[in-house]
Write a structure and sequence with these properties.
Layout (H helix, E strand, L loop, with lengths): L3 H57 L8 H5 L3 E3 L6 E3 L1 E3 L3 H5 L4 E3 L30 E6 L5 H6 L6 H10 L4 E7 L7 H13 L3 E7 L3 H13 L7 E5 L6 H14 L2 E5 L27 H8 L1 H20 L3 H10 L4 E5 L5 H8 L1 H4 L5 H11 L12
Parallel strand pairs: 3-4, 3-10, 4-5, 5-6, 6-7, 7-8, 8-9, 9-10
Antiparallel strand pairs: 1-2
Helix pairs in contact: 6-7, 7-8, 9-10, 10-14
């Protein structure tokens, strides 16, 4: 049998162990509390610095906070990838009305001129000619698709012909982002990255990005840039809508977390297929009825196209419940993905533009249950081994 003294010693030992563990727990809790307090302090410092920067910027441009477009229009802004470039989450190709409604991102391309020699004489939107406003705009352009990439890369040591032509048409000294549209399989990746680095070093662009590149090609460009001390891409322009999800929802989030490449998406309405106008076939004077769009007409009238239109009718019911149009629902659905820095819009009229902009007001209505209901209708949600989306 244990003696009284040995039992007392055992109790003391156990009590000592318990108190020691309690002290450690208290110390860990205190450390966690200190860490949380420090994180909160840093957040407050960062917020104060951002507010100070905003106040300085507005003062420099003689604009009050109440006049600030984000305050008056409800437009939301996101960083382009992990760069410091902050863009409106909606971007456009027509300017003045869009700018007045909070859009600061305008996407152009060399190919949009389609080789028209008179493009140099086209009128430039007046907001580009206002010097104090240029700093509030984010102008992007795409090259290579409308030109000869081999020739361009051969002369990049002097200047990039495609970008210089775009700057001349826009009457700008620089663009914020220049996109390499479609990679050239016949050109070594190092030459492409060196060409993009060159135009940035020459002051013709602030950043460069990719358009219609695979994740493997983007990763190769990043690796080459790091290997040779060059400038890597910050963003990929990718097609993204309810019927095209894999790249933006699985591949690009992985690249964002690994190397900071963001996503700027285009065609949220799938070239108009999601507009609702094709639910009963191809109406006269619609895009799909035009010469050169036979591929689109065939797609709409195919078996898969008919299935898509049936799904859109179900989604139309959700849009009506939320008090919005189908295009607004489709654009808001793209915006609900926080991995998307900006969604590029196309509008052929001011009414269409204002309808699209109203998608910002629909975004808060997309609860997790609504998104789940939409995913159930679409039946095409992509999955990866790891979910990188926040």
């Amino acid at each position: 049998m244990l003696s009284l003294s040995s039992m007392s010693e055992s109790v003391r030992s156990g009590l000592s162990c318990f108190l020691s563990e309690q002290a450690l727990d208290n110390e860990e809790r205190q450390q966690r509390s200190d860490q949380l307090a420090e994180m909160q302090r840093l957040r407050e410092v960062r917020a104060a610095a951002q507010l100070k920067n905003l106040e300085d910027f507005l003062k420099m441009n003689a604009v009050s906070l109440r006049e600030c477009v984000s305050y008056t229009t409800g437009m939301r802004y996101r960083n382009l990838g992990k760069s410091g470039l902050r863009v409106s989450c909606l971007g456009l190709e027509i300017m003045t009305l869009a700018y007045e409604n909070g859009i600061n991102l305008f996407d152009t391309a060399e190919v949009y001129a389609a080789g028209n020699q008179n493009a140099h004489h086209a009128p430039v939107p007046h907001i580009l000619l206002s010097p104090y406003r240029r700093s509030t705009l984010v102008i992007t352009t795409k090259i290579f698709w409308g030109g000869n990439i081999t020739v361009i890369l051969m002369v990049f040591a002097l200047y990039n012909a495609g970008l210089r032509a775009s700057l001349d048409r826009l009457q700008l000294e620089y663009v914020d982002v220049v996109f390499a549209n479609r990679p050239d399989p016949n050109t070594p990746m190092e030459e492409t990255v060196r060409a993009m680095t060159h135009v940035i070093n020459q002051g013709m662009a602030m950043y460069w990005g990719t358009s219609r590149w695979s994740s493997m090609e983007i990763m190769e460009a990043y690796s080459v840039a790091r290997q040779f001390n060059l400038i890597p891409p910050i963003c990929e322009q990718a097609e993204y809508h309810m019927f095209q999800r894999e790249k933006v929802e699985v591949q690009l989030p992985e690249l964002f977390h690994k190397i900071g490449v963001g996503a700027m998406t285009w065609s949220p309405l799938a070239c108009g297929i999601i507009s609702g106008k094709y639910d009963s076939g191809v109406p006269p004077y619609s895009r799909a009825s035009l010469k050169g769009y036979q591929w689109m007409k065939d797609k709409i009238l195919s078996e898969e196209g008919r299935r898509q239109q049936a799904k859109l009718k179900e989604l139309q019911a959700i849009a009506e419940r939320l008090g919005c149009t189908l295009p607004q629902l489709a654009i808001a659905w793209c915006l609900r993905n926080e991995g998307v820095s900006s969604v590029l819009l196309g509008a052929s009229s001011t009414d269409q533009l204002m309808e699209n902009l109203a998608a910002i007001q629909v975004l808060p209505k997309l609860s997790s249950s609504i998104v789940h209901e939409m995913d159930s209708i679409l039946g095409n949600k992509p999955y990866s081994k790891k979910d990188y989306r926040s």
